[in-house]
Amino acid sequence: EVQLVESGGGLVQPGGSLRLSCAASGFTFSSYWMSWVRQAPGKGLEWVANIKQDGSEKYYVDSVKGRFTISRDNAKNSLYLQMNSLRAEDTAVYYCARDEIQEIDAFDIWGQGTMVTVSS
Amino acid sequence: SSELTQDPAVSVALGQTVRITCQGDSLRSYYASWYQQKPGQAPVLVIYGKNNRPSGIPDRFSGSSSGNTASLTITGAQAEDEADYYCNSRDSSGNHLRVFGGGTKLTVL
Asked: Of A57, A63, A100, which is closest to residue B88 (Cα–Cα)?
């Protein structure tokens, strides 16, 4: 079964850090771009970042540049999002998604999401 | 960066046809993909490319595009189609950045 499972969310104070993980299974992880997408409570979807198959290219939405870092470990079939200098506006459910950018140009597999709350 | 604009809310009578639109400059160069999201659930891809449905998506869902506007059409809307719908495309800069529309809440009456 093709699956993405996020973990690492929780409550963190403003200015703090958190590292999210996404474990992939059921497909050849190293063959796909991957993305993080977030959704603030009661709001719409916002694309956050993506990373090429070998990690050589990474792209970010302007609001997280310099604070968030996307990475991957193909040997462990895992995607990560290191979040530093967190702000209240980063509070959201964070989804990892398979970013099938080359064949269908769409996010075809999604995880169930992990909640990040930034609050004092 | 690009923006994609969607109507916040649309309603349709049970069994009727509804069109949800998405506007943005990037759509002149790239196809939109469409996602359905029900409360408390992760998004699900329903349309990608010119007009393609992933396996398991009913054929009442279809997509089209003209100029800077992409459309998702549901022909014969069912109660279970009530959900939020989001379009997505690449950024018009031509690299691999992505952008979502603000979403459309579909109510089936």
From this structure: A100
> Could you identify the residue written with the tokens 């923006």?
B3
User: Nearest-5° angle of CA A56, CA A61, CA A65?
Assistant: 75
- Scanning B79-98 for CB atoms below 8 A from A yields 84, 86, 88, 90, 95-98
Of the candidates A22, A39, A24, the one whose C-alpha atom is nearest the C-alpha of residue A81 is: A22
pLDDT band at B92 (very low <50, low <70, confident <90, very high): confident
Reply yes or no on whether the pLDDT at B2 is more than 90: no
CA angle B78, B83, B88 (to 5 degrees): 120
Three-class DSSP labels, chain B = CCCEEECCEEEECCCCCEEEEEECHHHHCCCCEEEEECCCCCCEEEEECCCECCCCCCCCEEEEEECCEEEEEECCCCHHHCEEEEEEEECCCCCCCEEEECCEEEEEC
The answer to whether the beta carbons of residues A41 and A118 sit under 8 Å apart is no
Chain B residue closest to A95 (CA)? B42
Read off the tokens for A66. 């310099």
Contacts of B97 in chain A (CB under 8 A): 47, 59, 61
CA neighbor of A43 nearest in space, from A90, A107, A104: A90
pLDDT of residue B1: 60
Distance, in Å, from the CA atom of B45 to the CA atom of B20, rounded to the nearest integer, reads 15
